[in-house]
Every structure is written in structure tokens, then in C-alpha cells.
Amino acid sequence: MKRLYPLVLIFLTFPSYSQLTAKDIVAKIKNEVNCDWSSQTVDTFKAGNPGTEVSGVATTFMATMEVLKKANARGLNFVITHESTFYSHTDNLKTHKESPIQQEKLKYIEDNNMVVWRFHDHIYRNDPDMIYQGVLDKFDWHKYRNGEGVTFTIPEMSLEEIVDHIKKQFGAKTLRIIGDPKEMFTKVGMALGASGSGSHFARLANPDVDLLIVGETNEWETVPYVQDAIELGHKKALIVMGHADSEEAGMDFFAGWLRSIYQDLEIEFIESGNPYWSK
User: Fold this and answer.
1) Please, what is the Cα angle at 90 between 84 and 92, to 5 degrees?
2) Is 201 within 8 Å of 222 (Cβ atoms)?
3) For labelling alongside 105, which of 28, 118, 137, 220 has CA 20 to 30 A away?
4) Shortest CA distance to 199 belongs to which of 149, 135, 125?
5) Measured between alpha carbons, how far is 152 from 190 in angstroms, rounded to an integer?
């Protein structure tokens, strides 16, 4: 009779999904993205113990208290967020260390054995950029993209029709628009999130861009530039979607990407949503 002990030992040492820690999943993400991993990055653990065993993963645009509570209720103790958790880009806990809001949020994460990690810098650097990929899926504009860039040649539509399309596809409720609603456009550029006025000006200077769609912008830079361009007779327009509406679909795309790696692990996208409302 053959001895099976070596085979049993090999089987027992093979990792299962139930033994996965948050640190294991992050290591796998770092290995699977096709960009170099920078030592200077905000893509780090923000709260909780990285060695915590993962019961499930929630991806989200922002790890707000509402998102954390939803994740906890669904048994998802590892939250991967695109934006910061503690009210500054670097999540410096010293900035708001006296705030009861920060203290209570940290306590909730600790009391519920949760872990929060941020995936911001490298999600853009991956090819394809997962944020743009998810947003373009929702726009259904991949077929209009000019190469791999951020300009699009769409079928001729009025500005009003483009706005209606965005409202329908994204459920966007606080769009801000500059331009004649009846003006017809085919040349569109995108600058999602808070990419800065420099990227806005570069796109607006591109002859392939008459209409620029952005996440958010300074109202004293890009906005008056577009206003003046229109007044001077240039065909220009601007749609400000809001940061969340312009990027959140990317974290839904990322959830699908992660599921392709961990097919037996519970992974859900939880919408944090646009926090604004208008009357």
C-alpha cells in the first residue's frame, strides 16, 4: 500500500480562498496589473489589519460610512476604495485626529474587523485604464474613441441630446453645462475626475475637441475660458459631471476584473453615489 502522507501535506499547504488575507489580495493585484508599482503612492492600506482574513470584497468609489455599513451588512470585510477615506488625498490621520467623525469611523472599521485599501494611482496606469474603461462601457462610446486617447468622434448630436444621454446612462442628477443646448457636436474630449485645469486646457486646444466632458473643475479657470471662447465665436461647450459620476463606473469595472482572478470569492461593487442634490 502506498503512503499518501506527502500528497496530503502538499494539499494542506495549498492556499484556499477562505484563507485569503487582505494583504494576499493586494499582493495579487500588484502582480496582475501591467504597470510598474511605484513606491511613492497613495495606494496603501488606510485602516484595519492587512493580515485580516477576507470574507468578501467590496469595491467602491469612496469608502463613506454608508458604504462601510452596506459592506459590513453583506459580509464584505475588505473594502477597496478609489478615493480617500479620511478627508485628505494622503489619508493623513493627523489632519483630523481630534475630529469625532474620524475617530468614530476608525472605531467602526476596527469593531467590525474590516480593512480599507485604496486603489487610485495604479488603476489609471494599468493598460487599459480601468476607470476610463468602466466609464466608456457606461457611455457606450468605445466605438467612437479615436485610438487609445481621450477624444471621441460621435454621431452628430445637440448638446442637449448629449446631456440627456449622460443623465440616462449614469443617472446623473447634478450636471452643470456651459454652451448652447441646440449646438451640434461630434468632437468630444474627456477629462474624468479632478484631472486639473491643465489637462482641460490641453484638451480644449485640441482641434478634435469642441465639447469637453469633465469630472470637476475650478470655476475661475476652465469655466471662464469656455465662456470666453463661446463669446468670441468659437464652437465650444463644457459638461461638468461631478467627480463621482465621472469615475465611479470604473470601480464597477474593477470588481469584474477582480472576479476574473478570484472566481469563488464574494466580490461586489457598492455605489457610493453622487452626494449632491439640486432643487
Assistant:
1) 100
2) yes
3) 28
4) 149
5) 8
